[in-house]
Design goal:
The chain has four helices and 14 strands. A hairpin with a 7-residue loop joins strand 13 (251-259) and strand 14. Strands 3, 4, 6, 7, 8, 9, 13 and 14 form an eight-stranded antiparallel β-sheet that branches. It has a two-stranded antiparallel sheet with strand order 1-2. By secondary structure, it is α+β, with helices and mostly antiparallel strands. Residues 1-32 have low confidence and may be disordered.
Length: 289
C-alpha cells in the first residue's frame, strides 16, 4: 500500500511546472500551457500584430517650391509706316531715323493718337476722296509721317529745301477742347501766340505746339512766373485754333535742335519729328511715364 502511494505522489510531482504545481495539468491529462508573462512585462493583446523592427527614418518633406513668375507681357505695338513715307503725291519725305528728342514724353497725355496728314487726309483741301475731318479713316492706324510734306516754308532738312516743319497728330476722337496736350520735357514756356506755344526744354531743345485751345492755354499760364513746367504737365487741349481762322482738329508738333549742315556751323533748325514720336508713343502704350 505504501508503494502505491509513493507512485501516485511521484506522478503528481511530474505535472508541476517550475513556477508551481497545477491541479488542472493533471486534470487535463498533462496538456502543454502558454507560459505566463514575466513579472512587470505587460501581456500583448490577443490579436496584436507582430512587432516590426525599427526601419530607416522617414526623409524630411521637400521644401516648398517658389511659385513661377508670370511671363513678361508682350510689348504693345501698333501699325506705323516708316519715317519719310509721305502720303502719295504729297512731296518727298526725310528718311532720317535719328532720335532728335530721345526720351521725350509723347505730347498728348494719353492714347490712342493718330499721326497722319490733316491736309492730305479726309476733310483736308487735298483729301484723297470725299469725307469730312471726322471720317473714321483719319482716326485709324497706320501712322504716317508728314514732315517735309509739300509747303512753301523753308526747311533745310527736306530734300526740296522746303516743306512741312512738324508732324500732324489727331487725338483719340474728333472733339475740340477735350484731349490734353502735355510738356514733352521739363522747361519753360517762352512764348504763347495766337495759335502757337513754344517750350524751351531743359535739354536745350525747342518744342512748338500749334492749334490748341488758346483761351485755355492762357488761363493755365496767366503770368510769366507761371510758365515753368514739368515733364508731362498739362499745357492745353487739342483744338483747331489758327489765329482767328480754323483748321482741322489736330495738334501740329515741332522739334527744333542744333543741326550742322555741310561745312556750316551748327544752327537751330526744324528736325524730323516722326522717329521721336514713334519712340515716345511706344513707351506710352507700354506704360512708361
Amino acid at each position: 500500500m505504501r508503494r502505491a502511494l509513493a507512485l501516485s505522489s511521484l506522478l503528481l510531482l511530474t505535472a508541476c511546472s517550475p513556477s508551481g504545481c497545477s491541479q488542472d495539468a493533471a486534470a487535463d491529462g498533462g496538456a502543454a500551457r502558454e507560459p505566463a508573462p514575466a513579472v512587470g512585462e505587460p501581456a500583448p493583446p490577443p490579436d496584436a500584430p507582430p512587432t516590426e523592427p525599427p526601419g530607416e527614418p522617414e526623409p524630411p518633406p521637400p521644401p516648398p517650391t517658389e511659385p513661377e513668375a508670370p511671363p513678361e507681357p508682350a510689348p504693345v505695338s501698333w501699325p506705323h509706316d516708316p519715317g519719310g513715307a509721305l502720303p502719295p503725291g504729297s512731296g518727298s519725305g526725310a528718311v532720317d531715323a535719328t532720335l532728335w528728342a530721345a526720351g521725350m514724353r509723347f505730347p498728348m497725355e494719353s492714347g490712342p493718337a493718330y499721326a497722319n496728314s490733316q491736309v492730305y487726309g479726309y476733310g483736308g483741301f487735298a483729301a484723297p476722296g470725299p469725307g469730312g475731318q471726322c471720317d473714321p479713316r483719319n482716326y485709324a492706324y497706320p501712322w504716317r509721317d508728314n514732315f517735309c510734306e509739300t509747303r512753301s516754308w523753308t526747311n533745310g532738312m527736306c530734300p526740296a529745301g522746303r516743306g512741312h516743319q512738324g508732324q500732324d497728330i489727331r487725338p483719340a476722337t474728333c472733339e475740340k477742347k477735350v484731349h490734353w496736350v502735355v510738356a514733352a520735357e521739363s522747361g519753360r514756356i517762352t512764348s504763347i501766340g495766337s495759335y502757337t506755344v513754344t517750350l524751351l526744354g531743359d535739354s536745350g531743345r525747342i518744342y512748338r505746339y500749334l492749334h490748341m485751345d488758346m483761351a485755355g492755354v492762357n488761363a493755365l499760364f496767366p503770368t510769366p512766373a507761371s510758365r515753368t513746367v514739368e515733364r508731362g504737365q498739362h499745357i492745353g487741349r487739342v483744338s483747331a485754333d489758327f489765329g482767328g481762322n480754323a483748321t482741322t482738329i489736330h495738334l501740329h508738333f515741332e522739334i527744333k535742335a542744333p543741326v550742322a549742315v555741310g561745312d556750316a556751323p551748327a544752327a537751330v533748325a526744324f528736325v524730323p519729328t516722326y522717329s521721336s514720336l514713334v519712340d515716345s508713343y511706344g513707351r506710352l502704350l507700354n506704360g512708361a511715364p
